[in-house]
User: What shape does this take?
Amino acid sequence: MSFKDKYGQNNTLAEEGNWVELAPDVWIKIRRSSSKHAQKILTSLMKPYEAARARGKELTPSQQEEVNLRFIQEALLVDWDIPELGTYAEADVVQILREAPDFQSDIVTQSGILDNFKIQQDVERAKNS
Assistant: This one.
């Protein structure tokens, strides 16, 4: 296996998102956490804290939680197909994430896995089989 085969990614999938199955009837469309889009969002979310961080001050736990939730909402999670939750609405994401911390973890973990962004999967066929 070549270096490119092992470590190459489909940049379109990384930036626009790809469907990942977390469990039966739990599909999420996510961007790669290292995508340009995600990094731009993270920079904007951290901007209000730049001065304090430059003075060596860390974010409070509640500030860090808010940044994490908004990062998932605005940068990583693009869509979902989860009948139990209904139609994806970005406005509902933070509340759902607050109620399901393991869902947060799954989204963050999956957004960092290169294999999720290597090839275009025939997700519609997989979801309907």
Observations:
- The beta strands are 18-23, 26-30, 77-81.
- The chain is about 55% helix and 10% strand.
